Each structure stands twice: as C-alpha cells, then as structure tokens.
Amino acid sequence: HDFAIEWVACCDSTNARLVDAPPTDDGRVHVLVADRQTAGRGRRGRQWLSWEGASLTFSLLWRFAPGTPAPAGLSLAAGLALARALEQLGVEGVQLKWPNDVLVHGDKLAGILVELLPMRGRPPAAVIGIGLNLRLPADAAIPDQAAVADLGGALGGEPPSRPALLAAILGEFHRLFETYAVAGFPALRGAWEQRNAFADLPVAIRGESTTLCGTCAGVDDDGALLLRTGDGVQRVLAGDVSLRPL
Ligand code: BTN
After folding, report:
1. Percentage of the chain modeled with pLDDT above 70
2. Going by CA atoms, what residue is nearest to atom 11 of ligand 1?
3. Fewer CB under 10 Å: which end of the chain, C or N?
4. From the alpha carbon of 100, which atom of ligand 1 is closest?
5. Domain locations in the chain?
6. BPL/LPL catalytic domain location, by residue (predicted)?
7. What is this model's ipTM?
8. Rounded to whole angstroms, how far apart are CA atoms 127 and 124?
C-alpha cells in the first residue's frame, strides 16, 4: 500500500474531512494530518479535545479491495497496529481496551474512531482516525475524570517528532492492511488478546440504556467482546468497558 499524505494546519475533524469529501480513488491510502482540529470527534458521539501541539491527530482512508474480509474487526485491528508502533518506539506497558483505546499502564494514551463509508455496490471504505497524546498541558481540563497518559510521560522524555511518529505508525498500518486484506481480523485476534487490558477481569459494559456485568473472556473473530456471565458467554458489540470493583 502506498500512502498519500496531506498535512494541514487546521480543520474541523480529519475524520469528517475524509468521510464527507473522500479524495478520488488513485489506489493509495489517503492520510490527512491536522496540527489542530476545531471539532474532533470521539467514539459514541463524544468530542475529542486537543490542545495546541499536544497531540498527533490524523485519519487514513482505506478502500477495501474486492474480496477483503468484512470490516467487522477493523477497528480492533487498528488499535493493534498503533500499539505495535508504540512498542517499537520503546513504550512499555502498552495495552488495548476494547474496542480500540490504547492504554499505557492503564491510562489512555490514544483513541481511535473508525467510520465506514458505504460505497454503493462496491466494497466499503474505512476512515480510521487516530488521536495520540504527546504532551498534555499540566492544566488540561480533562472531562469525566478520564485517566489519560501522554507519550512524553510514557517514554520519560521528549517524544519523537510528529513526522517521525507518523512514519512509524504508517509502517505498522502498511503491515496491518497486508494481513487484514488476506486474512481479516481472525489472523490478528491472538495478538490483540495478548494486549487485552481486561483479560479475565470483572468488567461492566455501559451501553445506550443497559449495563452488562461479567468477566472479560476476550474477543471473537468479528471483534465482539466476549463477556462471561452467569448465563454463559455473551457477545457484546458496542459499549464502554470499565473495571468492575469487586
Ligand atoms: C475516542 O477515543 O473516542 C476516539 C478518538 C479519536 C480521535 C481522532 S483525532 C483524529 C481523528 N479525527 C477526529 O475527529 N477524530 C479522530
């Protein structure tokens, strides 16, 4: 896969740009990086806040070739690619929180938002948006008492430059697309589960209107979370996972 990279100073949301106005298909994976976003999108309708220079925010548009396995596990696979890139850069304690947050020692270092574009009669395309915290201001107002981490803290020093980080991450996405295109998420599931932050732990999963409780029993070949409850193992397709205090 070849990448076409566009780097802009500011936009509303790199995901929104690629979803609303996808570049013409020239066979390449299009990447849009923004120094700053004015309306960053998070998962489940949330906002993604960022502070000037404090993060690396970009999106990739990947068009599925005919015959590519269903995009069901793609958002988990994207988390795995990012985790691997960070590990290569020397970050220790990288884990994945279903479906695709990247944690370091339990705190959120990066978030991913995957949006699928239906392509009328053709295989779909996916916009994969990544927000990676580099150096959060000490006084950053972080909502919901979310526990966050940044790359500077995780590496104990100055993080690599954003172009260098982007190159490392795109290298892993290149590998990911190669594997995914032929074998889909089943080929990546084991590597995802090795980094599962909640493996065998008691969790609560908050959905739109219900909360499910159980023990995290990994993920299936479609990327659904497996929750062991008194009634057996349930597949969970969406929700926010948190540790359930015993
Ligand atoms: C989440 O954790 O809820 C997902 C956050 C995803 C944020 C990134 S930043 C680049 C891309 N553009 C967006 O508007 N969102 C994603």
Report:
1. 97
2. 129
3. C
4. 2
5. 3-194, 202-243
6. 1-181
7. 0.99
8. 10
